[in-house]
Amino acid sequence: MTIALPATAPKRRYAPTLVRVASGLIGLAVVAYMIHRTGAAAIEGALRPAWRWLPVLLLLDGARIGMEALATYYAYGGRGHLLPWTMLVRAHLVGYAVAGVMPVGRTSAEAAKVAMLGRYAGVPAAVAAGATNQAVTLLVGAIVSIPCALAAWHITGVSTVTIALVVQAAVLAASGMAIRAGARGESALGTRLAARFGLNLSEFRTTSRAVALFPRRPTAAMLVGRLFQVLAFAVAAHAVGVDVSVARAFYAQGISMIVLALGVFVPGQLGASDGAFAASAEPLGTTVAAAMSIALLGHVMQIIWVAIGATVLLTWRAHERAHPTVPPAEMGERGDG
C-alpha cells in the first residue's frame, strides 16, 4: 500500500529580500553622510530655486514614459493592436515605479509588464516583447553612450569617464544583439525564458521573430525617450545653478548611465548617483553641493513616480475581459520591426 505524502511547501527565500533592504539602507546612509559632509545648508541653497522646475521635470519624465510605451507597442509586432492603450499606459506607469525602487530595475519592470499585458496579447508575445525591450534598452544605451563619450572627451580629455563610456557602448551593443539573436534562434537564452514562464519553445521563438533582429521602431521610440532624459538632466542642472551646455548635459547623462551599470543592485542607485555627481562637480563647472543636488532631484522624481505607480496599481483596475489573441502561426515573421 502506497501512502501519498503531502507536498512540501516551498521554502521562502528571504535572502534576496534582506539583500535589497540592506542595500537600500546602506544607500540612504551614504546619502545622509554626503549631505552632512557637503553641508546641508549649501545643498538646501542649491535646491531652493530648483523646486519650481519640478513640473517641467515631471513632464519630461512623462514624455519618456510615453515613448517607452510606444516602444513596447512596437515590440509586440503584429500583436501590438491587441493591447488597449489605457492598459499599456497603466503597465508603464507601474513598471517605471518598479524600476525606481527595485535592484536590477529594468528587468523587474519588464517582468511586471509581462504580468500585466500578457492577458491581452498572450504570454508568449508578452515574454518575447519583454526580451525585445531588454535588448532595445541596451542598444539605445550603446547609441547614447557615443555622444556622451564625445562630451566627456571634450570636457575631460581621455579620462576614466571617457574610456568607461566607450567600453560601455561596445558592451551594451554586443549584449543587446546577443539577446535578440538568442530569443529568435536556437539558444540557451530562449530555452531558459520559455521554461521560466512555462511556454512552448517553438511558440516563443515564433513570437520573438515577429520583430526584426535589429528592432528599428522600438529602438527609435526608446531613443527619443532617452533624449527626453538628456533634456531632463539639462533642466535639472540649470535648476540648481549649473551653466548648462550640450556637452555638460550629455556628460551628466553619461555619469548617470555609468552609475546605473555599476549600481544596478542598489535600489534607486541611492548613494551611488550622489557620489558620482559630487565627484563630477569640476567637469560640470559647478560646486559639489550643486552637482549632488542633481542626483537628489532625481531621487525626488523617483519618489513621485513610485507614488504615482502605486496609486495607479491600486486604483486603476485592469480590463476584466482579455482581448482575443492571434495564433503565432497566423502572424508570420515580420522584418519591419
Descriptive account of the structure:
The longest helix is centred in the middle third of the chain and has 34 residues, at 123-156. This protein has one domain. The protein has 337 residues and is mainly alpha-helical. It is globular, with a radius of gyration of 21 Å. It is built from 13 helices and no strands. It has helices at 15-38, 40-47, 54-75, 85-101, 105-121, 123-156, 160-184, 188-196, 201-208, 216-239, 246-262, 272-279, 288-315.
Please describe the topology of this protein.
Layout: H1 15-38, H2 40-47, H3 54-75, H4 85-101, H5 105-121, H6 123-156, H7 160-184, H8 188-196, H9 201-208, H10 216-239, H11 246-262, H12 272-279, H13 288-315
Jot down its keywords.
337 residues; globular; disordered N terminus; disordered C terminus
Q: What is the number of helices? A: 13
**End-to-end C-alpha gap:** 60 Å
Question: Helix content range of the residues, please?
Answer: over 70%
Mean of all residue-level pLDDT scores: 82
Count of folded domains: 1
Oligomeric state of the chains present here: single chain
Count of strand segments: 0
Content-based structural category: mainly alpha
Could you say which overall geometry the principal axes of the C-alpha atoms support?
Answer: globular
Radius of gyration: 21 Å
**Proportion of strand residues:** under 5%
Largest sheet, described in full? none
Q: Can you tell me the residue ranges where pLDDT is under 50 for at least 5 consecutive residues?
A: 1-10, 328-335
Short description, anyone?
Helix content is 72%, strand content 0%.
